[in-house]
């Protein structure tokens, strides 16, 4: 298996009901050239999800920020996203590829242990999420916490680009970077902020410090 080229390291921003609004967060991310922006809706109806996804696609189009849709392959295809990210309980990756055969579309898969990492590599993932690194409240069913060392070990063992995910903020990002992890996902650190641009700046400064 050969890893796909073109993966950009850095902040992987996941948007779930941000207090500043989806569009404001996306605009702040694009202005700062955040490499990845994932739309992870929770309560929106199907029509609302599509409308929001299309607005985020307009904001991110022709920018340095790749737009990823969480879980929903059909929504990702409908809004012409850059890719989709699948969890362990979501659609089978092979079926996802059949539904959306665009060779340019990125497909990420969440993993929580070594077996899942190997499985994602064999099933055609372009990158994987590894976590949770720290405890998180964003999932009803929580996977065992890996810790920084555990996540770093899985990431070093994978041939694919990896995104560390789970409970990270500006205070913990330096530990992530010190462990050699180059791409990290955040949700609450930006979604709970009234000024998403300042929150992104804080995370970037922490990663570079």
Automatic annotation (TrEMBL):
Reactions accelerated catalytically: 2-[(2R,5Z)-2-carboxy-4-methylthiazol-5(2H)-ylidene]ethyl phosphate + 4-amino-2-methyl-5-(diphosphooxymethyl)pyrimidine + 2 H(+) = thiamine phosphate + CO2 + diphosphate; 2-(2-carboxy-4-methylthiazol-5-yl)ethyl phosphate + 4-amino-2-methyl-5-(diphosphooxymethyl)pyrimidine + 2 H(+) = thiamine phosphate + CO2 + diphosphate; 4-methyl-5-(2-phosphooxyethyl)-thiazole + 4-amino-2-methyl-5-(diphosphooxymethyl)pyrimidine + H(+) = thiamine phosphate + diphosphate
GO cellular component: cytoplasm
Keywords: Magnesium, Metal-binding, Thiamine biosynthesis, Transferase
Residues involved in 4-amino-2-methyl-5-(diphosphooxymethyl)pyrimidine binding: 70, 110, 139
Any GO molecular function: thiamine-phosphate diphosphorylase activity
Keyword Secreted on entry: no
Pathway in which this enzyme or protein is active: Cofactor biosynthesis; thiamine diphosphate biosynthesis; thiamine phosphate from 4-amino-2-methyl-5-diphosphomethylpyrimidine and 4-methyl-5-(2-phosphoethyl)-thiazole: step 1/1
One GO BP annotation of this record: thiamine biosynthetic process
Family statement: Belongs to the thiamine-phosphate synthase family.
Protein known as: Thiamine-phosphate synthase
Organism: Kiritimatiella glycovorans
Primary gene name: thiE
